[in-house]
Amino acid sequence: MAHRAANDARVLRRRLLAWYDRHGRKDLPWQRSRDPYRIWVSEIMLQQTQVRTVMPYYERFLKRFPDVQTLARAKLDSVLHHWTGLGYYARARNLKRAAETIVKQHGGKFPRDIEVVSSLPGIGRSTAGAILAFAFQQRHPILDGNVKRVLTRLHAIETPVLQRDTEQALWTLAEHYTPKARVADFTQAIMDLGATLCRTRKPDCPACPLQQDCVAQAQGQPERFPVRSARKTLAVRKVAMLMIRDARGHVLLTQRPPVGVWGGLWGFPECAPEAAPGDYCRDAFGLRIKTETPWPVRRHGFSHFQLHITPIPAHLTGTSRTVMECAPAVWYNPDKPDARGLAAPVKRLLQQLRNTT
Fold first, then answer.
1. Per the domain annotation, does 122 fall within a domain?
2. Residue 4 is assigned to a structural domain of this protein
3. Engineering a disulfide at 262: which of 58, 135, 209, 343 sits with its beta carbon 3.0 to 4.6 angstroms away?
4. pLDDT at position 324, please?
5. Prior bond to 328 cis, omega within 30?
6. Mind telling me the catalytic residues?
């Protein structure tokens, strides 16, 4: 991989930290404490999610789960409920599993060893390095999406960013630039640079403290980096969601398996769009229903496929007892929502269903 070395690392650090001192973000909620638990929660929430989206979730989550012991004891339903709408729900499941591990194996104290932290569920090398840098001032490089973008542009790295040799080269560069002093400030500074100036689109190169070091800027094409692999066409999955109401207006929800898409969350019974909903409900739950006109298809994107949802309203025509014996299921009162995790499309459909009654 050919890339030009930027100026002396000490000069680059000095420029970046001077910019951070003037323009960096220093008043985010998770910056008010060196508590590794609070920092850890924020780092997990910030994975693939923007700061402004995370902030209200973070405040609510910490109010309900103020420490690792509370999180470890909590029911998964409650944790997923407080994550509803934030997406990438495996993060919440891993957060709880890691909390249980910290309580059981580390006496409730967040470990300080990079290898131990990296091995916790949902925490990789970069997240572990960030937590230990912010909480304990330990020197560890990080390589989140923002940092990858800064480094690939700084050196105009021509190979796809997701290739293994590219990632290894980026780790080497991250290690090279990470200082021994002010490591937490540097870590925050390089993430801030990627988030605020070195953006994916329309980067603000004139305001960047590293513009004179940046090869991509010198080439006049910073948006060409990082280089992406050839984009694959996303597969499409189709599903019918049955929005079944009983005489009280309560809606049947079932709990999904603990792993996979929306693992552990509650949602509507699902069947293939071409299936007969009445036959499906009779066979799966022992219920008799009458369906109404399907609603327009909703589309929901995942990283590896596109989900096309056909919502089908229906009402119960027989008893509702049998369903409780067949699956984790509840008759959910949308007028008095309880603390259970719902996928964002399900939450929106419940609200729309409530508004139609």
1. yes
2. no
3. 343
4. 52
5. no
6. 43
